[in-house]
Amino acid sequence: MERIDVEKNSTIVIGCSSGPDSMALFDMLLKKREEYNLKLICAHVNHNLRTQSKEEAIFMKAFCKENDVLFEYLLIDNYGDDNFHNEARNIRYNFFEEVVKKYNADYLMTAHHGDDLIETILMRISRGSSLKGYSGFQKEVEKDGYKIVRPLIDMTKEDLLEYNRKNKVQYFIDSSNEKMKYTRNRYRANVLPFLKSEDPNIHLKYLKFSEDLDQAYQIVEREKQKVLKKVTKEDKIIIDLFKQVDPYFQKEILYSLINKFYEDDLILITDHHIDLIMKMLESKKANSYVDLPNDVIARKEYNLLEINRKNDEVFNYEIEYNKYVELPNGKVIKEGFDEGNSNDICRLCSKEINLPLIIRNRRIGDKMKVKGLNGSKKIKDIFIDKKINSKERDLWPVVVDSTNNVVWLPGLKKSKYDKKKDEEYDIILKYE
Predict the structure, then answer these.
(1) How many domains does the chain have?
(2) Distance CA 412, CA 386 (A)
(3) Does one domain contain both 325 and 177?
(4) CA 415 to CA 297: how far, in whole Å?
């Protein structure tokens, strides 16, 4: 039971709740510390939902001090998500990653065991998932500069409780694990006992199932990546090309793009979400979206589909022009020369406008007196005509004078204030 595979001289962050599983893992690592010259850091999260949580945090801090282990602590003050488990897990793993980076750790170890794997697989089968999702979670996951390792995956809860009894390991029991309102707890209480009565080593069968499915996924993944390159551009799906792909790969592509926003063993995305996105892609609406869990959004913009985090607020900017301005969209507006007539060049006469010029992003109700057009046109309508997606619209520069007259929409449209080469002007702007 103490066969944790780890390289010598490693730095390990242990995600430890003070429960029987993580305390067993902690004890195993303490027993290997001297032989392998390990540096151990305990990362403990107080979810602040039980009166016992404070006592557990005090115990963990004292335990770490007694065993000369670094202690990192996070207290969660409040939750904003309707799904507590999802939000709590995201906060927890973000904290773990911060600790890993702080100490430049080689491993993040968690105490997930074989029973957890069975529960995860069954829950994903019930809810619907991808090939990767149905495999549950893996023993090792490569991250950016470190590994997430679950060394207890071939052990059961009973194995760990027995280990604690033999080694006199102290731990706390989380009373919320008994509440039947949580899906995982219902599987744990009702399904696992039956499976174990059929085969006491059923967890090893599920582990083999998980590993076999993961190997199959790796083969499919290689083929999927080839298809992915053909139907995406800058992580956006080109919808008409996507529709030509085999339906199975369509769903796998959607899962792969979505899963970037969720940890590998988080049960969040189901077939229901994928079906909603597929229906959106089939609709005739040019612009629409599907809300996904944890503030992720799948947005259709004309012939493109992008999956990204929601921006709760549009980033507003306003910059006074002075010969050279760097813009939030990565472009610049600078003093130009007497060249070209494209929409990237604007010539203005200071006598007809009110200086200084201001460069800002769009505002509700913006209109421009378009060159060659009798009357004004809404900036919003120009964006739609030019098929500019909403994310680009939010940062696109709008050039106005000091009285808020729109004098130029760089790269897209010129206003009535723009001058021809043979007309009078004293300001030349270039957008690049």
Answers:
(1) 2
(2) 8
(3) no
(4) 35
